Amino acid sequence: MKSTNSKTIIRQLEHKLVTEGLTKKEHTLLREYKEKVTEAPIDYEGPERMEPGIERKITSKETPYSKDFPAIPKMDRDYVELISSKRFKDSVDKVRRAMGDTRAIQGNDPLRSLMMSVMQSLQQVMMIQMRNKADLEKLAVDLVVKELGIPEGAMQFDAELVMQPMGSAEGMKEEPELPSEEEIEEFMGDVETFNMERAKRRFLNSLIQGAAFKGGHMFNLVSTELNQIDPRLMNLYTVTQALMEHAYWLFPDMEGMAGGGGGQMGQEEIDTETDPPTVKARAMTFPLLVHELVKGVYEVFGTHGLPDDPRQQEMVMKAEDTLPAEIWDSRLGPIFWEKFMQAYPMELFEDDMKHIQHYLFMRFSKLNAEEFFRVAKLILSGNPQGNQFIQRMVDEIVKELNEYEAEQAYSSDDDDDLGDDDLDDLLGGLGISRT
Fold first, then answer.
1. The sheet that has 278-283: what strands, in order across it?
2. Strands 266-271 and 278-283, how do they pair?
3. How many distinct helices (H) and strands (E) make up the chain?
């Protein structure tokens, strides 16, 4: 029986136990259902199962978000198990919607069946994309700029569809590079400060990856344009995205493969030395190209969450920016991002307010670690105080932007362009630095 039904029955029986009392048979039933739930901490609603090694890491508290991670709320039910169950169910539902059923991810060897289905769809995708490469690359950039509300001239984009997987991402390692205790004391003050900055970087990375996964489904917003290019693309993208997302729950050692430099289907990097910053993205499909572009945009914003000191930045990034950790960001980051977006005021999703989201993410990233995690925990737990905190930040940002625009309107300077000094003043007033 489905685990969710089991829990419903437990609640009903426990309520009856308190209000009316239970028969001997009902007592036995209650005990059996409680044992069943205890033995299966991951909620499965059908025959599909995640890879046993992945499930074991979740239930034995071996994920990057376990063991008192400061953003995770304390609940009766383990929070990571709870959100892992939801993410797995969501991925199964996406496969079902894309393919009509889930036979491709069932059986004795679901990974093999899944990869065969992915490769069959990818072969068709690659043939179509290479005939329309330039149009699709431009469409990906235009889509990201529009949906993320990127102001004109604020960023540069270098997007390219490629024919084959790439190696491991530059600068990301299989294992964290940890500084010595002497280095921590010299540059960070103490181990606790260093660990809090590491955890902050980890959570920001998970939010960025979550935003990117949402971006990977933005191809649905340009269905008209994609149908004009080739009417087969929408269905092919829907299938490949659903199957590849589910693969994160089936591949037995995706962390080891990624950390060992296994081929990736998408990569991005940012260059903050250019003016404006450049987001470079390479991917094998249009949805993955959008995914990588969104990830790059939010990485630019997320750099504001690093310590100001360059040596401290380096220490934190080397300790946290690993490919195995990014795999867990891919599995659970979308849930964190979904919770974060739910805390946004509704007006931020209107076209003329989307740009405020960038200032909000940067200002949230710049909070000191203690306040950052206080707000993050409120948001993840669904506490209304988290929404109220976000609303206050939005109100402050809008007020400061309006004041700046008013000052510009009354300025005697005939030059309408926003100069470097003006931009620094504006961002500084919002609690943001360009460097």
1. 156-161, 278-283, 266-271
2. antiparallel
3. 18, 3
On the 0-12 / 13-18 / 19+ scale of CB atoms within 10 A, 5 is exposed
Domain spans in the chain, listed from the N-terminal domain onward: 1-40, 51-342, 343-435
Considering only residues 344 and 253, tell me which one the structure prediction assigns the higher pLDDT: 344
Name the one residue in this structure whose structure tokens are 């993208």. Answer: 237
Phi, psi of 144 (to 5 degrees): -65, -45
How far is it, in rounded angstroms, from Cα 168 to Cα 172?
7
Strands 156-161 and 278-283: parallel
- pLDDT number for residue 35: 59
Give 20-34 as a DSSP string.
T---HHHHHHHHHHH
- Spatial contact of 6 and 37, defined as CB atoms under 8 Å apart: yes
101: left (phi over 0), alpha (psi -120 to 50) or beta: beta
pTM exceeding 0.85 = no
Q: List Cα–Cα distances, 186 to 176, 180, 194, 311, 373, in angstroms.
A: 20, 10, 11, 10, 25
432 within 8 A of 304, measured Cβ to Cβ = yes
CB distance 279 to 158 below 8 Å: yes
Tokens of residue 45, six digits: 């609603």
The DSSP secondary structure of 40-92, one letter per residue, reads --S---SS----HHHHHHHHTT-STTTTT-TTSPP-SS-HHHHHHHHHHHHHH
Q: Is the pLDDT of residue 417 over 60?
A: no
d(CA 291, CA 266): 8
18 Cβ contact partners less than 8 Å away, ≥ 6 residues apart: none
> Beta partners for 268?
281
What is the rounded distance in angstroms from the CA atom of residue 159 to the CA atom of residue 138?
8
pLDDT tens across 79-122, in order? 999 999 999 999 999 999 998 888 878 777 888 888 888 889 99
Of 335, 338, 333, 324, which Cα lies nearest the Cα of 54? Answer: 324
d(CA 320, CA 324): 10
- DSSP state letters, 352-406: GGHHHHHHHHHHHHHS-HHHHHHHHHHHHTT-HHHHHHHHHHHHHHHHHHHHHHH
The closest of 361, 364, 360, 363 to 374, measured between CA atoms, is 364
- Looking at residue 372, its amino acid is F
